[in-house]
Amino acid sequence: MAKKRIFSGIQPTGIIHLGNYVGAIKNWVNLIEEYECVFCVVDYHAITIEHDVAAFQENILTAARTLMACGVDPQRCRLFVQSHVPEHTELAWIFNCITPIGDLERMTQFKDKSQQHRENINAGLLTYPLLQAADILLYKAQVVPVGEDQVQHIELTRRTARRFNTRYGETFAEPEWMLTKTAKIMGLDGKTKMSKSLNNYIGVLESGDSIWEKLRTATTDENRKRRKDPGDPDICNLYTMHKAFSPQATVEEIDPQCRAAEIGCVDCKKILFENMMKHLEPIQQKATELEKDRDAVIGALEKGAASCREISQQVMDEVRRKVGLR
Ligand code: SF4
Predict the structure, then answer these.
(1) Which of 130, 157, 177, 183 is the most buried (most CB within 10 A)?
(2) 103-130 pLDDT, tens per residue?
(3) 12 three-state secondary structure
(4) CB under 6 Å to ligand 1: residues?
(5) Looking at the annotation, which residues are catalytic?
(6) Residue 10 and residue 26: Cα distance in Å, rounded?
């Protein structure tokens, strides 16, 4: 039986942090076996907010090599850069023309981003979910792995597919979303989403010294003010990190030790740091090797884009014909 096709993307912000790694990339690596995977560095999405033009190409390459170092093997999936396949924006424009503006104004992420970027509430921020719909439907992907905050966008993608089909004839199947099961790692304050713009992140490629400094000062269970106060691992972001990086036995030991105040937060963080680095060091080593071999990364992305264009051009031929464009 043919494997189902999956689409997912990541923005080239210059940093891939632990939130990205645990919430998406680790999952991508596992999905490669079971699905036909199309993975994208979404540079068009990244320019909806102000970006460093001079560093942008380097950031794209950093995202790609970090993904490859994490195990997203371009020999076993399609890995490419969004703008290398121009059909993404072409299809997004057609979706713009069939979508009521109210649907876009209701998107929670648009409201959040409009708050965050008050000085730059551009049309791209509003229509961003339609570019996302185009990313997915251009490959007729059947499944999209997402965190809960993205479900609303996949619902819009499904509505967009229905709208297109109703107006122009059956073309797109409605993709399903697949919720990523891993617990969400928050920023170092334990409250906000881990992100580069909030400067509350730990980068996958960060040095051990820097990671320890961040862990050392990271917020734990705030009710645990003194060493002898019992803690609650269920509300501690560091415990969520343990679940992602420490062996199961350690995770199980720490829970009762924390609740009985038998372990202090500094010792708990030291154990986490050791386990985290065991996990990250091989990735960092691989990323350093890839940094020295830029041609290998660029070549893999070119090959991925060429393979994606074979699909996207066919789908756009069909779309243009149905819309009466050619
Ligand atoms: Fe969090 Fe560990 Fe401190 Fe408990 S002991 S509050 S799990 S850092």
Answers:
(1) 157
(2) 999 998 888 888 887 888 899 999 999 9
(3) coil
(4) 220-221, 224, 231, 233, 236, 238-239, 254, 258, 263, 265, 268-269
(5) 113, 193, 196
(6) 13
Q: 208-287 architecture in CATH?
A: Orthogonal Bundle (1.10)
pTM of the model: 0.93
Domain boundaries, the chain: 5-185+294-323, 208-287
Closest C-alpha residue for ligand 1 atom 3: 265
The predicted-structure confidence for 126-157, as pLDDT tens digits, reads as follows 999 999 999 999 999 999 999 888 899 999 99
The pLDDT tens digits for 284-308 are: 999 999 999 999 999 999 999 999 9
Instruction: Return the closest-CA partner of residue 110 out of 152, 76, 55.
Output: 152
Report CA(209)–ligand 1 centroid distance (Å). 21
Name the CATH superfamily, with its identifier, for domain 5-185+294-323.
HUPs (3.40.50.620)
- The answer on pLDDT for 169 being more than 80 is yes
**What beta strand segments (E) does the chain contain?**
5-10, 36-41, 78-81, 143-146, 176-179
